[in-house]
Design a protein that fits this description.
The N terminus and C terminus are likely disordered. By secondary structure, this protein is an alpha+beta fold. β4 and β5 form a beta hairpin. α2 crosses α4. It has eleven helices and seven strands. The relative contact order is 0.12.
């Protein structure tokens, strides 16, 4: 029996902007099929046959492809499907910690999820119905798609371990890069250091510090550096 007929049916609507129609767990099940077929340049015809689907225009197939691309796990070129390095690290992890780190980086990859992570990081996520309304009013998600988008976000946050029992979206304390572009440039947290997330009024700042702390002189240097970026009415002041 095909994956299409065994899973719970969900209806996805087009929206004013892109969002992952499926959550992280469902997306990983989908890309694991691509990994089974070799993981690189898998033709659409071969993938559809493996899934037991006759044609690619089903909402389920479309939703999983979109989600895979949104989470930075899948690329598609000329109807050929290839897994990214992130997908490989998650499906074939070197260790559990690296898998968790990559999962959380992937979770923050969609533009919508970045916005929600900055908005609700360290805070309790509203109920799904309320979150759906927020997505519609503040994040340009079509009203017919907002409920699915909200559910997928909450389910994904829980799956990657960033949702506490009281529904608080946890700020990860691990040495993670925050965007795929930073990761692709090879910028990594140096060995013997840790990254501290700092929740600000207009987003989140990340500071990498040595594990054994900083001296008083280092503190003064950092203080002066931060002062260069103090803003007043959105104007950056540089002395």
């Amino acid at each position: 029996m095909s994956e299409e007929t065994t899973e719970k049916k969900r209806t996805f609507q087009k929206s004013g902007r892109s969002y992952p129609p499926y959550n992280t767990e469902d997306t990983l099940k989908f890309i694991s099929v691509i990994e089974k077929l070799g993981g690189r340049n898998v033709s659409e015809a071969v993938l559809l046959k493996e899934l037991g689907i006759k044609e690619p225009r089903t909402k389920s197939f479309w939703g999983k492809v979109v989600s895979g691309k949104q989470f930075g796990l899948l690329t598609v070129e000329d109807k050929n499907y290839t897994l990214t390095d992130w997908a490989k690290l998650i499906l074939r992890p070197k260790d559990e910690e690296s898998k968790k780190e990559t999962l959380r980086n992937s979770f923050r990859n969609p533009e919508l999820y970045k916005e929600l992570y900055e908005r609700f990081g360290g805070q309790q996520i509203p109920p799904v119905d309320t979150l759906a309304n927020i997505l519609y009013h503040d994040h340009r998600i079509n009203v017919n798609a907002s409920s699915d988008a909200a559910k997928a976000f909450v389910e994904s946050a829980a799956y990657v371990g960033l949702l506490d029992a009281d529904n608080v979206l946890r700020i990860s304390q691990t040495n993670e890069t925050t965007t795929q572009s930073v990761k692709s440039e090879g910028i990594k947290t140096p060995v013997g250091s840790f990254t501290v997330p700092i929740i600000l009024s207009k987003g989140i700042a990340y500071m990498t510090l040595p594990a054994d702390g900083i001296s008083k002189n280092d503190y003064e240097k950092l203080k002066k550096l931060i002062e260069l970026y103090i803003t007043e009415e959105a104007v950056i002041i540089r002395n």
